[in-house]
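To assess whether ligand presence alters the predicted conformation, the chain was also submitted together with 4'-deoxy-4'-aminopyridoxal-5'-phosphate. Input:
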Amino acid sequence: MSPTANADIFSKIFSRHVQRSLGRLEPHQIALGMRKVDALGPGTVVTSGREMLMFSSNNYLGLANDPRVMECASRAVQTWGASTSGSRLLNGTNELHIELEEQLRAFKQIEKVVVFSSGYMANLGVLSALLTEDDVVVIDKLAHASIIDGCKLAGAQVRSFKHQDLESLEMVLLSIEPERSKLVVVDGVYSMDGDFAKLPDIIRIAHRHGARVMVDDAHGTGVAGPNGRGSAEHFGIDEPDIITGTLSKAFGCYGGFVGAKKEIIDFLKLSSRSFIYSTSLCPSATAAVLQALTITREEPERRENLWRCTNYLLRELKSLGFDTGHSETPIIPIILRDHNRMFDLVAALDAESIFVSPVVYPACPKHKPRVRLSLMADHTLADIDHLLDVLDTQGRRLGLLRLN
Ligand code: PMP
């Protein structure tokens, strides 16, 4: 085939279709999606010299800017330097990595843990190491992008079931040849919907069909369950066959982890390419998470306030007539069916110094753009009341309230 003008790798960027889609976004809409944050406060941020109430952060326990966590990060830099400058297999594992893996193992009550340099890398690493082209991986339709990418990297056959639909899960499992190895992968808490995966049923069904279960508990860890152990503790069950998570949300730092039986973790350490061929977690992040874990264990009142605010906001939003989908966690979407009205709502909240984020496809279904609210332990009921007042006024003005 002879090369044409379209053969340039950049041509897709300048295609009429992409440029038209970009052109549809007004400059203020792009700006709303990429606001520059200058400083963090308790439940607040400063942008362009303006202090705003922050309802768009995954800093669930307020630990990212806790002075004790920040102090541990700076001390680690003084002792260990800014970076490990390479993979743990090449540059060695430092004692912070070993301590963190032990602390996470004890926190999650699982046999062994390995730390990755992000939650995304953890999912990529496990799935690409564990799955082959002969295996089938069964995922929820709304699985996180890092799960989808890990499955693609592995080249495994991917089958999906309808979001949270156990019958659909069972049908998919039934349709797979029994001799095939199968892995069911779900999020513990869905990041754009805020609903818990129905773990007890999912694990029971999967095991009945000879499938193993992996749960990405990025949004459950530190938040869910009486001790913050995560989604499994929320349901009062043991951890599934494989658990992954991030250290960036409730723990407020950076990094990811995988927990499972010893043999699985030992296998991953020698076969996960995102673990072997990438620089290990830097000393400041590792030390900071260690401190964040201690605070998570010792200050349950943070989690208690987070849930007090969550339950209150959910109840009040519903009674005002907002569509919050099936949310039951500190992630609360206001689901709108119109992109312009979504951006109008974000802009109206912005004008009232309330920071929220617009969410569009592919982060959520095309026809369900949303404003994603997420709560923090630093919020007060007075903050939530202020948010509700503004949402009530703007929701009425923009015609967003459902008739009850
Ligand atoms: N899984 C889920 C469900 C997530 O929401 C995220 C982060 N948005 C990740 C994995 C990736 O974690 P990290 O940001 O640590 O790479």
